[in-house]
Amino acid sequence: GINWREGSPTIATLVTGAITFAGDSASAAQAALAGALRTGERWFTEAGISGAAFGSSLLSRGGSVSTFARERFAFDAFSVWAGGAWGGTNRDDQASHSTSVELGGWYRAGEFEASASVSRVRTGDVPLLKAAGIFPADENDMSDLTDVATELRYEHGPIVLDATGNFRTGARTTVASQSAFYVTAVWTISRRYSFAIGTGRLLADPVRGVPDMQLTTAAIRIALVPLKSPAALAMSRGTSYATVTQKSSGALLLVRVVADDSASVEVAGTFSNWAPVQLARAGDAWEAEIALPPGRHRVAVRINGGPWQAPRGTARVRDDYGGEAGLIVIP
User: What is the CB neighbour count within 10 angstroms for residue 261?
Assistant: First the structure.
């Protein structure tokens, strides 16, 4: 498989693709495209589309396509979201469709992250449910399921541990009572290589046409475009500074970044609706003066198109795009 991520203060995208080979009809090819758009200081719109072809030879048994959309409200260390998804599957010339609606929340405390969500799924994919041990009362009727998903993640240095739990019950005329747990561990060996292992059970996903499975994996991940090392990121953060001077109404923010004359230095934040603004050369550094009204503001800087970082002198907060920004409160 392959993953490709791109991000900025206002938009982030993810493209994934994978091919699975097996000695039976479980062979498959999958691809997905997802994106997130910042529509306000704390509002994010997320959407994506995915497709799969499966069979002992690709497309020999059919395929599936699914889409989702989600609106997320984020506030420093927590966020909540609501969304929905639709999926269509054609398997062995038998077509079906599924829909779901979801509510969830996420919270970060230090090196720990936790999330929980509840979703209501309505599906006509009878073969998938039967293979998962779920038998609807009438094969001509749609089946209804209620899913609760939980996740706990711990990240410390090069180690990331992740545990998920999924709990499924039937609704209306559908009878079901299932649970599944999956754990993964990732060790980042270097900027280019990481090792990942995982084991557990995954419940069937009618929206994407994915079957119930017991899975154990081990993989070496290679970064074709390696991320910057922590030392390099620390150095980048150390070259930017922010000072705030109170005014009769609001304050004046001075952002100063020490960088070469040939560097491209930008600042973005809530004050610019997250549109990047080029800094001006001032002596041996780059500077920008920004008038801020009373309230909460976020600011981030980057050099030569690198990662967005919080300037020194601000409270550093992480965002849903894998970057960070500085938090400033003007009384």
Answer: 7
Predicted local confidence at residue 236, as pLDDT: 45
Contacts with 313 (C-beta within 8 Å, 6 or more apart), sequence order: 241, 242, 243, 244, 326
Task: Judge whether 240 and 246 are in contact, CB under 8 Å.
Answer: no
Listed residue (13, 108, 14) closest to 1, CA to CA: 14
* Burial (0-12, 13-18, 19+ Cβ within 10 Å), 308: buried
Rounded to an integer, what distance in angstroms lies between the CA atom of residue 219 and that of residue 196? 5
Question: Which of the residues in the chain have pLDDT under 70?
Answer: 7-9, 22-27, 40-41, 56-60, 76, 137-140, 225-238, 319-323
Contact status, residue 96 vs residue 143, Cβ threshold 8 Å:
no
Name the 3-class secondary structure at 62.
strand
- Helix (H/G/I), strand (E/B), else coil: 165: strand
Residue 70 is predicted with a pLDDT of 93
The per-residue pLDDT for range 200-252, each reduced to its tens digit, is 999 999 999 888 889 899 999 888 865 554 444 444 444 788 888 888 778 88
Distance of alpha carbon 241 from alpha carbon 254, whole angstroms: 8
Rounded to the nearest 5°, which phi and psi values hold at 172? 55, -120
Query: Do residues 9 and 42 make contact, with C-beta atoms less than 8 angstroms apart?
Result: no
Residue 114 CB coordination number (10 Å):
15
Q: Which segments of 110-171 are extended strands (E)?
A: 112-123, 143-156, 159-171
What phi, psi does 243 have (nearest 5°)? Answer: -125, 145
Length in residues, the chain: 331
Tell me which residue of 111, 176, 175, 114 sits closest to 149, measured CA to CA: 114
Residue 128, classed as helix, strand or coil, is: helix
Alpha-carbon distance of 138 to 126, in angstroms, equals 10
List, in sequence order, every residue forming a beta bridge with 255; answer none if it has no partner.
242, 288
Q: How many CB atoms lie within 10 A of CB 93?
A: 7
